[in-house]
Amino acid sequence: MYKTYIKRGCDIIASFLLLIIFLPLCFVVAIAIKLDSKGPVFADVPERVGQDGKTFKMYKFRSMIQNAHLLLRTDKRFKQLYEEYKKGSYKLRNDPRITKVGKFIRKHSLDEIPQFLNVLMGEMSIVGPRAYYPDELENQQKEHPRTKEFVQAALSVKPGITGLWQVSGRSEVNFDKRIAIDAKYAYDVSLVQDLFIIIKTPIIMVTGRGAI
């Protein structure tokens, strides 16, 4: 009952209210982004993989230079950086593409606020597994073939703005451990677990622990 109906109802109500609450902060972040660097307010990122493998456009505030994701994959200047990106479980500890404002909003997860729009549209949930990039899932499963079962489990539910892995180490956790945590969440979706994650999330946001 909770997983099928109650969770979706809570997502709609909570995301609507939080969008209203965060609206003034969103204006401040948007202005800071425009003053700090050229480019749009929202990030131009590849689609993510959602529930049942369906792809969707995730809304995020731009924290990097314009066309950062495309440049990483196609610009020869970033060839070595892209190799480091793949070896580091699709995370970079020192990413030169991140702007000054971007560094701050990423540390405190402010770039994630627009994802409440994805929740309202039914593409995401407030709590759930990480929304992975298609090439990330493909390449990481080749690197970690034993994770395929975990990937299937993680994709059986909607990805979340926050989740069990985010409050368990965030970017400090590599893919094989991260997808195992996501799978564990998917196997045991419950109101108690979601409340635990929601309560712990603000602490992670304020401290910026594990953020890259």
Overview of the molecule:
Residues 7-206 form the Bacterial sugar transferase domain. The chain crosses the membrane at residues 12-33. It comes from Candidatus Roizmanbacteria bacterium CG_4_10_14_0_8_um_filter_39_9. InterPro entries: Bact_transf. Belongs to the bacterial sugar transferase family. The chain has helices at residues 2-36, 68-74, 79-87, 100-107, 115-120, 134-143, 148-154, 175-187, 191-207, and strands at residues 48-49, 55-56, 125-127, 160-162. The protein has 212 residues and is mainly alpha-helical. It has one domain (2-207). A two-stranded antiparallel sheet has the order 1-2. A two-stranded parallel sheet has the order 3-4. A hairpin with a 5-residue loop joins strand 1 and strand 2 (55-56). Helix 1 runs antiparallel to helix 4 and helix 7 (148-154) crosses helix 8. The chain is globular, with a radius of gyration of 17 Å. The mean pLDDT is 89.
From the structure above, extract its key features:
single chain; mainly alpha; two-stranded parallel sheet; 9 helices; Bacterial sugar transferase domain-containing protein; transmembrane helix
Shape: globular
Main sheet, how many strands, which sense, barrel?
A: 2 strands, antiparallel
Query: Gyration radius, to the nearest Å?
Result: 17 Å
The structural class is mainly alpha
Number of domains: 1
As a percent range, the share of strand residues is under 5%
Unreliable segments (pLDDT under 50, ≥5 consecutive)?
A: none
Question: Helix proportion of residues, in percent?
Answer: 40-55%
